[in-house]
């Protein structure tokens, strides 16, 4: 029984790591773009482009991404490079200028495919005022892919600060686990 408890506690030590994809490494158009073990790819002939300057002051980072949301059905697909599941916690949509003069609502769809092949989806509406809006998501867990896409035309909006959680064993976790196994082995050896 003690060994089972010890083994369970060792596996519980594996950490969950929150990563923020902030596009700081993006300097030119990229297709696909890789950051922190994640792959982002524009859909339907779009491109992932850096937007610098005034957008940085809105989103808190120097670079946000314009995925050609200016036309119907363009978006960005997010996957983990190693194919493992991840959770999507939040993201920012950044409006460089007021959208009040543009026709139609500024809506976006976020759709994720889970590891059991089920789909989770939600729509968000931006407020039309220049600046960044953070959208916190619930239920976007155990995902293999997520697609951010525009609904309607001319959504001149960029995306930034995508917060994802993924099981990432840290090197210190491995060292602690190895040390625990050595101590467990020494403790059992002394009893015999």
Percent of residues in helices = 10-25%
Provide the CATH superfamily: Galactose-binding lectin
Give the averaged pLDDT, no decimals: 73
> What's the domain count?
1
Uncertain spans: none
What's the SSE pattern? HEEEEHEEEEEEEEH
Strand order of the largest sheet: 2-3-6-11-8-9
CATH class: Mainly Beta
**First-residue to last-residue Cα separation:** 18 Å
Compute the number of strand runs: 12
Query: Quick one: biggest sheet?
Result: 6 strands, antiparallel
CATH architecture: Sandwich
CATH topology: Jelly Rolls
Oligomer state of the chains in this structure: single chain
- Structural class, by secondary structure, is alpha+beta
The fraction of residues assigned to DSSP E strands is 35-45%
Number of helices: 3
Rg over C-alpha atoms, rounded to the nearest angstrom: 21 Å
- Coarse morphology: elongated
Protein name: Ice-binding protein C-terminal domain-containing protein
Keywords: Signal
Signal peptide: 1-18
Organism: Uabimicrobium amorphum
What this model shows, in words?
- Residues 167-191 form the Ice-binding protein C-terminal domain.
- InterPro entries: Ice-binding_C (IPR013424).
- With 192 residues, the protein is α+β, with helices and mostly antiparallel strands.
- The protein has a single domain, classed as Sandwich (Jelly Rolls).
- The chain has helices at residues 2-12, 54-59, 171-191; strands at 16-21, 33-35, 38-42, 49-51, 64-66, 75-80, 87-95, 107-114, 119-125, 131-136, 143-151, 158-167.
- It has a six-stranded antiparallel sheet with strand order 2-3-6-11-8-9, with no helix packed on it. Strands 1-12-7-10 form a four-stranded antiparallel sheet. Strands 4-5 form a two-stranded antiparallel sheet.
- A hairpin with a 4-residue loop joins strand 8 (107-114) and strand 9.
- The protein is elongated and about 75 Å long.
- The model has no long low-confidence stretch (mean pLDDT 73).
